[in-house]
Write a structure and sequence with these properties.
There is one protein chain. It contains 13 helices and 21 strands. The protein is of the alpha/beta class and about 425 residues long. The strands form four sheets. It has an eight-stranded mixed sheet with strand order 10-20-21-17-16-11-12-15, sandwiched between helices. The chain has a seven-stranded mixed sheet with strand order 5-2-1-6-7-9-8, sandwiched between helices. A four-stranded antiparallel sheet has the order 3-4-14-13, with no helix packed on it. A hairpin with a 2-residue loop joins strand 8 and strand 9. Helix 7 runs parallel beside helix 12. The protein is globular and about 60 Å long. The two termini are about 25 Å apart. Bound molecules: 2-acetamido-2-deoxy-beta-D-glucopyranose. 2-acetamido-2-deoxy-beta-D-glucopyranose (NAG) binds next to strand 13. Belongs to the peptidase C56 family. One of its GO terms (biological process) is glyoxal metabolic process. This is DJ-1/PfpI domain-containing protein.
Length: about 425
């Protein structure tokens, strides 16, 4: 999506705002479930799995697609990521290669509890032009089941399909003028009957959690939201210690090693946001194949494998989280060697979620203040900034993960290029840039 010169209204960060409308009333308060570890579904009536369709096409916004899939799977939904292209592998708008679970033709006769369209360009056009998807979504609306769209998709796909009629909708600020003005709503989330619309990558957690609430109830949505660390009121968003300059004369390069079990939202948010700032990002698989299967089963094709990637030097190396993925990254001798060289040469490195623990084990957090995911932070033996989402100490940057990754990525951009570029990237993804 192009950088925007359009003022943003009601641009409240997803992190401080609960999904607005409760459509499904929650079950008894006593049954507060823990959706990550146990089934969130407690009553026999709701034991049928909720089926969700998330279509993708060439140029779909990867954060939007992956956050929708990941958050809904965490809530217990059976989510199909379906390609509207002739191939399952699809290159998303910022260059991430995703592999869909099925082709859209296989979904033609299925009944879904929710059809949710990610945005991005030209992805929204590719979705609009897919006749099978149009029929599925129109039927979805006619049969009074949930559907929704985010970013460019409400204007580019729902409008020509006629699905906006008699409904208030929102979309990305760059596409607001395409909406009929008396229906356009400048809010992060708009729920009107069975239709939910939202604004952009930075509001996708809210968008996904709104669907969790509508499908599973408010308690489940709150539980999932807490696990995602999207309620940032409990801690400070960012803190920097021992400030040093991170700027470069040439385009900075960043290596993001990934493994089976890496957290897909963390990988995709980091890579997408850095690429929007014109950072040169290389995603390298430590597995035998370039394709990895991430923690919530999203298939991502890396740019290269770690052996080839290790022939170059990177200005930054950032490890994504995801418990199983972090364990596999830790076993990679090449990653270990690259990180050690990174530290010895005084270059920048960091990690998200539980990967700061790996950095520590390899002696890379000595005398550094760091943070990590609440589940992992007890394993950090050095100085810890427990109540901070993103911690920069000299040339080391760490973060709690999931809901803090946008702040983390913007913090890197701020350090590399200054606040104005970081702020313009934040505007483009419809995310409130942190003060200070
Ligand atoms: C990693 O995931 C890929 C699929 O993307 C699979 O082919 C491979 O077997 C997996 N590797 C391991 C060690 O599980």
């Amino acid at each position: 999506m192009a950088a925007l010169a359009i003022p943003l209204f009601n641009c409240v960060p997803f992190s401080v705002q609960a999904p607005r409308k409760v459509v499904t009333s929650p079950p008894a308060a006593a049954t507060r479930a823990s959706p990550l570890t146990t089934s969130p579904i407690s009553s026999p009536l709701s034991s049928l799995k909720k089926k969700v369709l998330v279509p993708i096409g060439m140029g779909t916004e990867e954060m939007e697609a992956v956050i929708l899939v990941d958050v809904l799977r965490r809530a217990g939904a059976d989510v199909l990521m379906a390609s509207v292209e002739s191939e399952l592998e699809v290159e998303a708008s910022s260059g991430t290669k995703l592999v869909a679970d099925v082709g859209i033709a296989e979904c033609a006769d299925e009944v879904f509890d929710l059809v949710a369209l990610p945005g991005g360009m030209p992805g929204s056009v590719r979705l609009r032009d897919c006749e099978v998807l149009r029929r599925i979504t129109v039927k979805q609306a006619e049969d009074q089941r949930l559907y929704g769209a985010i970013c460019a998709a409400p204007a580019v796909a729902l409008l020509p399909w006629g699905l906006h009629k008699r409904k208030q909708i929102t979309c990305h600020p760059a596409f607001m003028d395409k909406l009929p003005s008396f229906r356009a709503v400048k809010s992060n989330i708009q729920v009107t009957g069975k239709l939910t619309t939202s604004r952009g990558p930075g509001t996708t957690f809210e968008f996904a959690l709104s669907f969790v609430e509508q499908l599973f109830g408010g308690d489940v949505a709150e539980g999932v939201g807490q696990k995602l660390l999207v309620h940032t009121d409990d801690y400070q968003r960012k803190e920097e210690f021992n400030k040093v300059d991170w700027s470069f004369n040439q385009t900075p390069t960043v290596l993001v090693p990934v493994a089976n079990g890496s957290e897909e939202m963390e990988v995709v948010m980091l890579v997408d946001i850095l690429r929007r700032a014109k950072v040169n990002v290389v995603v390298a698989s430590v597995e035998k194949s370039k394709q990895i299967i991430a923690s919530q089963s999203t298939k991502i094709v890396a740019d290269t494998n770690i052996a080839d990637a290790s022939k170059s030097i990177y200005d930054l190396i950032i490890l994504p989280g995801g418990t199983a993925g972090v364990e596999r990254l830790q076993k990679s001798r090449i990653v270990k060697k690259l990180l050690r060289e990174q530290m010895e040469a005084g270059r920048i490195y960091g990690g998200i979620c539980s990967s700061p623990v790996v950095l520590q084990k390899q002696g890379l957090l000595k005398d550094k203040i760091a943070t990590a995911h609440p589940y992992a932070i007890a394993k950090l033996t050095g100085q810890v900034a427990e109540k901070v989402g993103v911690v920069i100490d000299g040339k080391v940057i760490t973060s709690k993960g999931l809901g803090t990754v946008i702040d983390f990525s913007l913090a890197i951009i701020g350090k590399l290029f200054g606040h104005s570029r970081a702020r313009s990237v934040a505007e483009g993804i419809v995310f409130e840039y942190p003060k200070s």
